[in-house]
Amino acid sequence: MGKTTIAWCTHSLNFIKWFCTRISPGCKNCYMLALAERYPQNAADHPVWRPNALKELKKLPSGAEVFVGDMYDTFHERMPLRFIHWHFNLVAQRPDVTFLFLTKRIERALALAPYLQFAPNVWLGTSVENDDFAWRIDYLRRMPVAGRFISFEPLLGYVGDIDLRGIQQAITGGESGPKRRPFYPSFATQVRDLCTRDGVAFFHKQGSSQYPGQDRLLDGQIHDALAWRTAQHVSR
Q1: Are 20 and 30 in contact (CB under 8 A)?
Q2: Which structural domain, as residue segments, surrounds residue 112?
């Protein structure tokens, strides 16, 4: 657990060691896989529970916005069901914290939803990198969670005239690093316009540059609306 440089949250928390496998084009330059090679002591070739995560959970400051599993996918096909249960049972013990889960395997999340309990402080998101994966939005819309968000990261192309009703938050961003693929601002402005049409909060994380978090201007503006932050203020 620790503070994070990810602009749309304040902390990250990993209940298991770093673990995942590529599933779609957005995974090609996955930062987790690169870091796992550099720091193998923090990674594993299968899901391994981190007992220290329980202490880290208790130490989270009240009001934190926590990305759970930024170094793995909670709904990975090899993630044991008991591990998934533990994730959602444990975060329910901290109702003063907002927990953000992000998965590319949203179809497994929906299949398991009847067997899981999602506390009111849980938000679930899915990744959509181009129009080939817009179908994930329909699965997300059916999830019985308090809030739903879409990470259009890395945004590799246009997503088409998608329906964002039932979604509360969208995040766009290009890739960073030396192997980054082309990103055009018009990819993100299309999503922004869809958010305006459907009443969805819009956050533009970054353009395409060597370092993360750079080139945040979109049509000369910073877009940093976060629906879970607004929800926190309302609840207080």
Answers
A1: yes
A2: 2-235
Reduced to 3 states (helix: H, G, I; strand: E, B; else coil), residue 145 is coil
| Residue 117, Ramachandran bin (φ over 0: left; ψ between -120 and 50: alpha; else beta) | beta
What predicted TM-score, i.e. pTM, was given to this entire model?
0.96
| Alpha carbon distance 89, 10 (integer Å) | 21
Q: Select from 140, 138, 149 the least CA-distant residue to 65.
A: 149
Distance CA(207)–CA(118), nearest Å, equals: 33
Q: How many residues does the chain have?
A: 236
Q: 179 is written with which tokens?
A: 């192997």
Say if residues 167 and 196 touch (Cβ distance below 8 Å): no
Half-sphere exposure of 223 (CA within 13 A, CB side): 25
Alpha-carbon span 4 to 81, nearest angstrom:
28
Alpha-carbon distance 219 to 197, whole Å?
18
Number of structural domains in the chain? 1
Q: What is the pLDDT of residues 139-161, one digit of tens each?
A: 999 999 999 999 999 999 999 99
- Give me 147's structure tokens: 């809030």
Categorize the per-residue pLDDT at 234 as very low, low, confident or very high, splitting at 50, 70 and 90.
Answer: low
pLDDT reading at 236 higher than 50: no
At 85 the three-state DSSP class reads helix
Sorting pLDDT into bands at 50, 70 and 90, what band is 230? confident
Q: Collapse the DSSP code of 43 into the 3-class scheme (helix H, G, I; strand E, B; otherwise coil) and give the result.
A: strand
User: Residue 157 is which amino acid?
Assistant: G
